[in-house]
Recover the amino acids of this structure.
């Protein structure tokens, strides 16, 4: 009985606000407010409010919501695992599920022939000549600088 009274009061207040809004020449907004304010009365008339009030205070209903929540959580968990592992069809298409044997050569590093562990990777010939030229002090490494200086008249 209290829920029906509250819903009626809310609807009456909403219709009053809609009337004031229509008086201010905002008819579209007034009609929208009136539509929203008639919803509580409609719910009371259909019996939905009584059903919700009975459900809200029923321990059996809350246990049912708990079971539904657990069911949803299990569905979400299985879906997440399935996305991570792939679908059953994808696994069967990939093979019978057994791992193929790996050849010993497949685990060798792809650094090329003669590469040793801990050695530096090979550098390009241009970088090798510039690094060795800078340490030996040969006149060839200043040729590009001399060309730039000549170009600018220095």
């Amino acid at each position: 009985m209290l829920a029906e009274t509250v819903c009626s009061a809310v609807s009456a207040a909403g219709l009053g606000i809609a009337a004031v809004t229509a008086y201010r020449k905002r008819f579209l907004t007034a009609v929208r407010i009136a539509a929203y304010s008639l919803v509580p009365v409609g719910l009371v008339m259909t019996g939905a409010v009584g059903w919700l009030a009975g459900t809200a205070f029923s321990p059996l209903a809350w246990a049912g919501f708990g079971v539904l929540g657990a069911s949803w959580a299990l569905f979400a968990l299985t879906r997440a695992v399935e996305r991570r592992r792939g679908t059953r069809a994808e696994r069967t298409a990939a093979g019978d599920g057994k791992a193929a044997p790996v050849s010993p050569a497949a685990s060798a590093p792809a650094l090329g022939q003669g590469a040793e562990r801990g050695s530096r990777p090979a550098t390009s010939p241009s970088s090798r000549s510039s690094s060795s030229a800078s340490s030996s002090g040969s006149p060839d490494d200043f040729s590009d600088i001399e060309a730039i200086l000549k170009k600018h008249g220095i």
